[in-house]
Amino acid sequence: MSTTAPVRLPPMPAAAPRGPARRLSDLLYTRRGLLLTALLAPPLLWFGVIYLGSLFALLANAFFGLDDFTGQVVREFTLANFKALTDGANLDVVRRTVTMAAAVTLACIVLGFPVAYTMARHASGTQKAALYILVMLPLWSSYLVRLYAWKLLMAKEGAISWVATELHLGWLLDALLSLPAVGGSSLSFSTLGTFVVFVYMWLPFMILPVQAAIERIPGSYIEASSDLGAHPGTTFWKVVFPLALPGVAAGSIFTFSLTLGDYIIPQVIGDSTLYIGQVVYRQQGVAGNLPFAAAFSLVPIAVVGVYLWIAKRMGAFDAL
Q1: 238 near 225, Cβ under 8 Å?
Q2: What is the C-alpha to C-alpha distance for residues 155 and 177, in angstroms, rounded to an integer?
């Protein structure tokens, strides 16, 4: 009786030692939360240190005072800067700025909604591309170039005055400039001119979110409204506009906040009336009163914060 010798298998090669990179890769693969933390840590650190840190430093300076003799910041707690904000002149600046921001936002909605609706519902192919180019074209040039171009257009001897004269509409332009609240010696030195330039600058920021919101409205909703006998105007107010409202709110975030903080346009276009951005710039850059500038700069932050809360309730961030 013969016996068969057992077969000896060759020894398995020893596994190569894993390097630190491989071990780190395995760790990140098996623990997805750690991977997400590693990805978000740099931008969150930047946001926390640079952005929020600067805001907290700004808030801290608002509670300091200024030595009238030396012009140096006195790091002692005081509420004098916030008390100064309640002065009549400063309240007028806040009221004027918020009113301008609201008026510009409303004008951008009225002018931008028809353009956005046309782009979303009626234009296609080449027409849609051409409308996109026309909306985006002003943003391809320098902010200051566009601003000073409007300065020349609205000057007393500018193109707008010349066209009004040629069309025998000079009386209408003179009537607008004679209005006590919005007029001036020319369009370039009037509140009306400031308003026009603000609307021109921020109008694309209203059109694009509204257009995106209207495009997301299912066409079947509009067809169903028509099949049920609704008038086109009723369909617009009962179906299209409510569903496009998040886009309107999203666009208004840009137009309202950009107007609220801008100081260059009122500096170049308009009369001597001041806006919040100009006051902050002059107090910090000219007068060297950093504590009061910090206190005043908290006003638009608070206003925009309330506005963002209202816009969020309206679903604005879903349309961004």
Answers
A1: yes
A2: 12
